[in-house]
Amino acid sequence: MALRWGICSAGKISHDFACGLSTLDSSLHTIGAVAARSLENAKEFAELHKIPTAYGSYEELAADDNIDVIYIGSVNSAHRDLCLLFLNHNRNVICEKPLSLNVKQANEIISLAKRKDVFFMEAVWSRFFPVYEKVRDIISSGQIGGVKLVRANFAKPCLRKERTLKKELGGGAAYDIGIYPLQLALMAFNDEEPTSVTVSGHLMEGGVDECGNITLLYPGNRMAALLYSGLCTLTNDAEIACTNGLIKIYSPCWCPTQMDVTNLETGKTDNFHFTLPTPRVSPNFDNSEGLRYEAEAVRQAIKEGKKEHALMSHKTSLLLASTLEKVRNSLGYVVEGDSVPK
């Protein structure tokens, strides 16, 4: 039987998630309903993606017993309240990154998910790409030694719309794109908590962050150097330097299809390339067809009766939220509920 998805919010990322779902076997995945604050917008979305039911409120979607799992693709500031809404209706939920605006909210959401005993996951889609799977396999095998250094860049002009420029909407470059090199570095170090998080960067006039240079330090002289900006463009690739080799992830490093692995002992470089299917409707963002990977991972986890996914566990979401909060606070970007005084 197909996993019946409910889409919460009819914005660009929800559109792309529906595009990703369209590339999967329809006997395993189907979209049963979409909800938006505007019924007109929900109906337009439903018509485009051939969804049978459109709702003009999120409460109606939460009450729909024909839905197995909810995907939340709303603005960042709404994530906490929407997660609580659907969890309180005992729905399985995946919520687009960032899960919340800070650790306090993340703890509240995850605690409720555990009490309700439903599946819940922060939708960090990068971790489900075949390239990321290959990276984890190489690191865990030890074939090129242990990880010593991670370098990742992500910069593109994304701070142009209201949702990205206002603190009250969860704006800023760290929430939008800086989270991606950060989660990659955490993954490379097996989601180990860094001993030190230091940041330099700049805020914009409205108080959200424009750019940042993050350094993570770990025991054993290991570190990560991560650079992000919401107003300019960089190479947007990543490298993971190991004691006996190098992993290069090509741009876009947050949703990659190509990587190289160089073994310094043999001098051999292996290239890996993974192709993406073509959806019926074109997505908005780079390689959004790859949202299919996290969707299928969620289906498998729910089928197996799991309440979280090992690749993006509740513990990992809390670590990511904590580290991201430290990044923002170091730059002077503080929101209500942060662990530092305003």
Structure description:
This protein is an alpha/beta fold and 342 residues long. 33% of the residues lie in helices and 25% in strands. The protein is built from ten helices and 14 strands. The chain has an eight-stranded mixed beta sheet, with helices on one face. Strand 5, helix 5 and strand 6 form a beta-alpha-beta unit. Helix 1 crosses helix 9 and helix 4 packs parallel to helix 5. The longest helix is centred in the C-terminal third of the chain and has 18 residues. The chain starts with a strand and ends in an 11-residue tail after the last helix. 48% of the residues are buried. The model has no long low-confidence stretch (mean pLDDT 97).
What does the secondary structure layout of this molecule look like, with pairings?
Layout: E1 3-8, H1 12-22, E2 29-35, H2 39-49, E3 53-55, H3 58-62, E4 69-72, H4 79-88, E5 92-96, H5 103-116, E6 120-123, H6 130-141, E7 147-155, H7 162-165, H8 173-188, E8 196-203, E9 209-218, E10 222-229, E11 238-242, E12 245-249, E13 258-263, E14 269-273, H9 291-303, H10 314-331
Parallel strand pairs: 1-2, 1-4, 2-3, 4-5, 5-6, 7-10
Antiparallel strand pairs: 7-11, 8-9, 9-10, 11-12, 12-13, 13-14
Helix pairs in contact: 1-9, 4-5, 5-10, 8-10
Structure keywords:
alpha/beta, eight-stranded mixed β-sheet, 33% helix, 25% strand
- Low-confidence parts, pLDDT < 50 over ≥5 residues? none
* DSSP strand count: 14
Question: What proportion of the residues is helical, as a percent range?
Answer: 25-40%
Number of helices: 10
Shape: globular
Approximately how much beta-strand content do the residues carry?
A: 15-25%
Taking the alpha carbons of the first and last residues, their distance comes to 50 Å
Mean pLDDT: 97
